[in-house]
């Protein structure tokens, strides 16, 4: 029997906390499932779920399919912005321009402090210029989403960056002849793996659940499509919302498991050597 570690809750308290948190997530999902099983004539059945996947209703659900496709595309594009643009910029400021970190930190707070309607008013003239130059496709909304996810992605990355002593590692790698690309990909990125994973999870969650900006900029995303279709068939809207929540949980679990596997493999490789040394 293992002794209890001071400062840690007991096993019973931990299970109780997890059960309460799980209930907070599960109870709304169960309520949504119960609502979608209600029949308009009374009782319960699978009529609304069958109607959702019925090919004859494809025309009425066309806006929903378009919204799902647009949201998934925007999630990929915004994630690419975070990993290919934000991450190198944050690392560059941290390593080469540390005096700008305070200004960058303040700048990333602005999307949280400024109301969404004010952001849209500011985005409007920029989108008119973008539309006249390169078009106004759904992809352009990823630029606005990049601004919205910046505060969360920035803090997730910088928390790991400051904890790994990146400047010392980068200087050591540079003294051994490594280029900046090698330092970024093979020295910094593995050290902030958890931060990048958290930034990716937050980016996907924010993009899939965002409504205000896409609605005010007249773009059809998943949340906008759900609002439109709920006016004619609330059962279909709730059913799709339930599927999107479950799908988002699955995506987050896949991304989370992808980030944790290499660490387990590394531990399993180092364990035999440690035993031999002992």
Automatic annotation (TrEMBL):
Origin superkingdom: Bacteria
SUPFAM superfamilies reported for this sequence: MetI-like
Stretches that traverse the bilayer: 12-33, 72-95, 107-130, 136-157, 196-217, 237-261
Entries under PANTHER family matching the protein: INNER MEMBRANE ABC TRANSPORTER PERMEASE PROTEIN YDCV
Residues in ABC transmembrane type-1 domain copies: 68-255
Principal localisation: membrane
Coiled-coil regions listed in the entry: none
Protein's name according to its UniProt entry: ABC transporter permease subunit
Taxon lineage: Bacteria, Bacillati, Actinomycetota, Actinomycetes, Micrococcales
InterPro entries in alphabetical order: MetI-like (IPR000515), MetI-like_sf (IPR035906)
Location of this chain's protein in the cell: Cell inner membrane
Key words, A-Z: Cell inner membrane, Cell membrane, Membrane, Transmembrane, Transmembrane helix, Transport
Membrane topology: Multi-pass membrane protein
């Amino acid at each position: 029997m293992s002794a209890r570690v001071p400062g840690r809750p007991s096993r019973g308290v931990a299970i109780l906390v997890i059960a309460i948190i799980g209930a907070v997530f599960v109870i709304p999902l169960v309520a949504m499932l119960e609502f979608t099983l209600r029949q308009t004539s009374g009782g319960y059945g699978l009529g609304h779920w069958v109607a959702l996947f019925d090919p004859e209703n494809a025309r009425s659900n066309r806006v929903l399919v378009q919204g799902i496709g647009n949201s998934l595309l925007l999630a990929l594009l915004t994630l690419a912005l975070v990993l290919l643009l934000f991450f190198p910029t944050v690392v560059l400021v941290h390593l080469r321009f540390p005096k700008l970190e305070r200004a960058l930190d303040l700048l990333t707070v602005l999307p949280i402090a400024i109301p969404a309607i004010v952001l849209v008013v500011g985005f409007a003239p920029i989108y008119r210029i973008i539309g006249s130059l390169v078009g106004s496709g759904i992809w352009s909304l990823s630029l606005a989403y990049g601004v919205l996810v910046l505060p969360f992605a920035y803090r997730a990355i910088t928390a790991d960056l400051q904890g790994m002593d990146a400047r010392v590692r980068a200087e050591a790698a540079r003294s051994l002849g490594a280029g900046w690309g090698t330092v970024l990909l093979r020295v910094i990125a593995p050290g902030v793996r958890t931060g990048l994973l958290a930034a990716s999870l937050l980016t996907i969650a924010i993009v899939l659940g965002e409504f205000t900006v896409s609605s005010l900029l007249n773009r059809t995303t998943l949340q906008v499509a759900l609002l439109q279709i709920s006016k004619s068939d609330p059962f279909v809207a709730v059913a799709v919302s339930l599927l999107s929540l479950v799908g988002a949980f699955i995506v987050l679990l896949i991304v989370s498991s992808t980030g944790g596997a290499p660490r387990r493999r590394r531990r399993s490789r180092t364990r035999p050597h440690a035993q031999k040394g002992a």
